Amino acid sequence: METILHAINYLCIVQSYREFLELSVEWPQEGFEVIDDELHFHGINLIELAETYGTPLRVTYLPIIGKKIQQARLYFQEAFLRNDYRGKYHYAYCTKSSHFRHILEEVLKHDVHIETSSTYDMEIVEALEKRGLISKKNTMIICNGYKTPAYQRRIVDLLHDGFENLIPVLDTKREVNYYLSELEVPAKVGIRVAIEEKPDFPVYTSRLGIRADDVVDLYLDKIKSSSNLELVMLHFFISSGIRDTPYYWNELEKMIQLYVELKKEAPTLRYFNIGGGMPFRNSLDFEFDYQYVIGEIVRRLKVACQQHGVEEPDIVSEFGSYTVAESGAVIFKVVERKRQNDKESWLILDGSLMTILPDIWALGQRYIILPLNNWDAEYERVILGGITCDEQDYYYRDAHTNVLFLPKTRKETYIGFFHTGAYQESLSGVGGIHHCLIPTPRHILIRRERDGQAHVDILYEEQNSKQVLKILGYL
Ligand SMILES: Cc1ncc(COP(=O)(O)O)c(C=O)c1O
Question: How many structural domains is the chain composed of?
Fold first, then answer.
């Protein structure tokens, strides 16, 4: 791809940024459209937003969340039909991808379950129940993560409080002892299996979960004879994501084999929890065959269950990024153009990539990047720079081209990073202190009313100097 783009670039076959983009990827694409030289995101004119609310600006477009959930359900439904699979599919949302109330409210409109990861999550569960958004009886609350004493205590409190479908997933062997000694009501439990990491990862086995060889013994020694605990779930999470790779299929097969082995000992077992890791569209030439990959997970489970004469489990997923990433965007304005040598043009943005989109710096995450205006200008290869002093505060490779081309113009230019809705706020923090004291940007929420009209709310304002100085002890 890079070579073709260089060829296009150097042969000057195309003149404008618009022509360049149309030649390099399929355009327009779902969610994006250019009308009168202005980029629209799901029908929202982004230049209008930027001019009304200022930049840098974090944007959440809520309606996309429901669409993603429905889509995943359809993929599973199709796969179940094709494989004559008798289990059910349960969609759970992994709260850590975005804990915000507006996100949970949107997700829960679609009748999903939730997965938690730490003590404070339990307060969120209670708040959601009080608002009538989840049900003590029906909503599955999958409690994952390392259980500190406080987290364990809150789990037990909620179980005593009648959250019948709350399922602590044992992350260490020791954890079960607490439930055995403290629980006075029946409870379902799960076991998380530690996966083997990808060959290029610096360590061999994940620190999360219980080693596969110990799982059956843990059940036989501690859970089987308990009058309160019922083992219902086997859980694993392949951290590098659900991918069509030999590594993924190999790890999945091991988990399926463990499931059927355990099922023979534990007849109450009924959920096969595949965790998160379903990819989101992070590039204009993103290709992932969801239907095939989901179909293959279902097919492999079906085959193994048939071979071993065990009932097919219900499948549970905990998709985080898949659910929320595509609802997010961040808009910056270009405040300066700098040419530091003969080849490289820097566009300096009015915010920091490192602090607003920390996965760029931490993981080398790539996003869809598009200009909001100037589509008819020429194009040039650029590097985007943030306003901290840090050399790492930059972005130079588009996901689909490996380099980054944007309009070449001296006119006012806005740039959007798209599908940024997962993890970025919790990693960078909302409020607090950021590198070089770059403030948390303003964040707006966009909903669609029943009549299709867009409704915009400010979730929070840009952090001000007083808030920052107070934390630093000056006020
Ligand atoms: C146990 C577990 N489930 C689900 C997820 C969600 O992963 P993703 O956002 O990739 O879907 C995570 C993320 O760290 C996780 O640790």
Answer: 2
